[in-house]
Design goal:
Length: about 425
Amino acid sequence: MTPYPRLPRNHRHWLPVIVLLAMVAGCSNGPALVRNTTTDYNRAVRQVQNEELLLNIVRARYAEPPQFVRVSGINTSFSTSVSSRSATGWTNGFGGNTGATIDGSIAFADNPTISLSPRQGEELAKEVLEGVSTRGIAYLANADYRIDHVLVMLAEQINGIRSFDVGNAMAVRGGDPAFGEVIENLSTLLEQDQVLCGFLRHYDQFEHTVATADLRPSDYLAALQSGKRWNTLEDDETRSALFTYEMEPVIWISKEGQASDAGKQFMSTLRLDPEVQVYWLVDANVRTRPTGLVDSLFIRTRSFYGVMNLLSQAVSVPLVHEKENMATPTMLPHEALAEMFQRLLPDILNIQASTSRPDRAWVSVKHKEFWFYIDERDIPSKRAFALTAELFNLQVGGGPEESDGPILTLPVN
C-alpha cells in the first residue's frame, strides 16, 4: 500500500520560519513608511513654498497683486492589503522532487490630505508692506549671505544716499550715483575679507549707582536672570551701575580695510568716522544725510513687497508679452545707477522663460502660457532665491497661529 504523502521532516520545520519572516517584513514597513513619508512631505512643502514665491515675483513683473497661501496641516493614512499563495512537493516512495513554496505580497497605500488656507487680513498687509528691520540685514549676513547683495535688495537709502527706486507698473529709476559706488566698494572690501556684518552687545546704563563693595553674589545673579548686568563705572571703579544690554546689528571694518582705497571711499561717501571700526545699523524712516562724521549707517529699508518688485526685474519677459505691453517696463537707459543695477542683477538672480516645461529647472511655475524657472545649475540665482525665502520667513512668517508651521499627522501602529 502506498503511504499517504507527507511533507518530509527536513522541510516541515521551514514553514513557521517563512511565515514569521513574512510577518516581520510587513511590520517593519511601518516605521520605514513613516520615515519616507515625512521626508517626502518635507520636500513637497518646501517645493510648494518655492513655487508660490516664484509665482509672486513673476506676478510683480506683470503688475499683478501677490497671493500667499499657507499649508496649515497635512493628514495621511495608510492602508494595507495582503495576498499569499503556497505550494508543496514531496517524494512518495517511488522517486520525485521535494520542496515547499510560499509566495506573498503586501501592498501599502498612502492617502494624504493637505489643508491650505489663504494668508490675508490686516496683519499680513502690515508684514508685507512694512520695511524690513536692520536686524533682518544682520540675520541674513549671519547666515552667510553677501552683505552687498543684501543691501542691494533691501536698502532704499543709506545715510541719505538713495538706492534704486522700484514701483509696481513703473520702471526702475536710478537714485544717487554714489549708491553704486558704495555697493562696489563694499563688494571689494568683502572680497578682501575686510568687512563683517553681525551683532554686537550694546549696554545702556541706569542712572542709579551703588558702592561696588556692597554688591553680593546674589545681586549679580539676580541681574543676569533679569537680562541685566552690574558693571563698574569707567571713571570710578568703586561705584557700579546696573546695565541692560541688547544684541544690536553692526558692520565691522578692519584697520587694513579702512586704510584701503575702497575703505576710504566707502567711509567718505557715507561720512563714517574713521576713528572707529564698528558701525551701528540704525533703522531710518526718513532720508537722513549726516552733517558730520557718524558711527552709524542710517538705513531706510524696503518692504518685502518692494523686494519682490525689485526682483521682478530679473524675470525674462517673453517677446510676445513685451510687444503687447503686458509686463512692467525695463529700466530707463539714461539712468546711470539703473544701468549699474541692470549689470548687477543678472549676477544675483536670473528667472528664465520657456514655452515648454524646462528639463533642468530647480523651481518652475506656469503663468500666462509660459514656464518661468530658475535653472538648477544657476547657483547664484538659487542663493538669491534662498535669501528671499529666508527674508519671507523673517518678515511674513505668520502670526502665532502658524508659528509652528504645518502639522503632519501620521498613524503609527
